[in-house]
Amino acid sequence: MRGNFVRSIVGWLLVLPLLTSGPATAQDKPTRPAVGASAELSEGAGLPHAKVSRYEIGQGPRSYWLFEPAEPKPARAPVVVFLHGWFSVNPAIYGAWIDHLVRSGNTVVFPRYQNDVGTLPRDFLPNALFAIRDALGVLAAGKDHVRPDLDRFALIGHSAGGNLAAQVAAVSANRDSGLPEVRAAVIVMPGEVLSSREPKLSQIPESTLLVVAVGEDDVVVGDLRARQIFKQATAVPRSRKRFILFRSDRRGVPPLLADHAAPTGANTRLDNGEGFLRALQLNLGDVNAFDWAGFWRIADATLGAGFAGLTLDEAIADKDAFTHLGYWSDGRKVNSPVISDDPANVPRVLLTNGIKIIPWEWPAKTNDAAVARTEDESTVR
User: Fold this and answer.
1) Which fold has domain 2-378?
2) Which of 2, 54, 141, 325 could form a disulfide with 334, with the two C-beta atoms 3.0–4.6 Å apart?
3) Residues 283, 268: Cα–Cα separation, whole Å
């Protein structure tokens, strides 16, 4: 109980994605589901590449890290941009997921996009875009790098990075943006640090596969911004987008908590020595069923479908298998996420359990009908 309390309080105060509690004991740890290679852990078992090549390029908020598959080194690879949460600039915080993506055959670009509190939120998007464009140029021109397969380009983002992923996807619609077509965007527990009406999310291309995920115990950002992103991506048809609610399961020790920290997972091999509360974040790191059977596997399936030109309707032929997180050792099924192409069918995450640092939408003078729509969308039901 004490560990869960500390985890919630630190996340509540700092809006930083902390890491999950210590490893489960053998008798309570969920078993892996028999649903594809993406359920493998990050040590590389079952994955096609044995090592990850790492490069740090640039300095300051426009710097970034490249993580490329090695042993064997492919001639070309899909590119996945991984956008971190607010102040979580150390790749090791998401290192297990990054390691899994790269050993699966993807090149990962990890933009820094901020230094500290001195980096203004309005600069997050320009910084990230600069890093992405520069990274693509380095990959294309650098003789020592894996060449980018620009026909397979995707985004993954958590927290403030989830909001950025939606914005980058919208910017990509402009042919002069310098960005490839975004085949898939996986947006996890998104939150805004400062409200912005540009770029308009209605510009997210209709060809993009869009998955937006929230956690039922996320007291940091709730689900409001996630629902706004899903609703405002009007060009993306329902066949190409899904809204997912991860549910906690407290029947084992330690419990699986679908909170704001759930998508993180430590891998000290990617530690760059930076980050606020770095030692705490890394020491508390754990990789569990939410990772290898949830976030990673669902992202793998979404990216794979996007790269193959499929819709999510086609990719999720069996919804139960798609959301299956495995079983506890006593045979009980781990609580599956709720998934729908309509957020109205998904239970709300009550933001009143936590804190909203900055309002996601500022009141605007408009007609009564518009005010009613805004109030309806902003009300916690």
Assistant:
1) Rossmann fold (3.40.50)
2) 325
3) 9
Q: Give yes or no for a contact between 284 and 19, defined as CB atoms under 8 angstroms apart.
A: yes
3-class DSSP assignment, residue 308: helix
Q: How far apart are CA 77 and CA 167, in angstroms?
A: 24
Whether residue 140 contacts residue 148, with contact meaning beta carbons closer than 8 Å, is answered with: yes
Torsion of CA 361, 363, 368, 374, to 10 degrees: 20
- Give the three-class secondary structure for 246: strand
Separation of alpha carbons 42 and 52, rounded Å: 11
Q: Which two tokens stand for residue 118?
A: 């001195």
- Successive 10-residue mean pLDDT values, the chain, 381 residues: 40 34 36 32 69 95 97 97 93 96 98 88 96 98 92 97 98 95 98 87 98 95 95 98 97 88 91 79 75 95 98 93 91 95 94 44 36 34 29
Q: Is the peptide bond before 199 cis (omega within 30 degrees of 0)?
A: yes
Structure-block tokens of residue 298:
């669902």
CA distance 225 to 360: 7
Q: Tokens 């996009």 correspond to what residue? A: 113
Residue 300: phi, psi to the nearest 5? Answer: -55, -45
**Of the candidates 196, 181, 121, 188, the residue with the CA atom closest to the CA atom of residue 148:** 181
C-alpha 304/C-alpha 78 separation (Å) is 10
What are the residue ranges spanned by the domains of the chain?
2-378
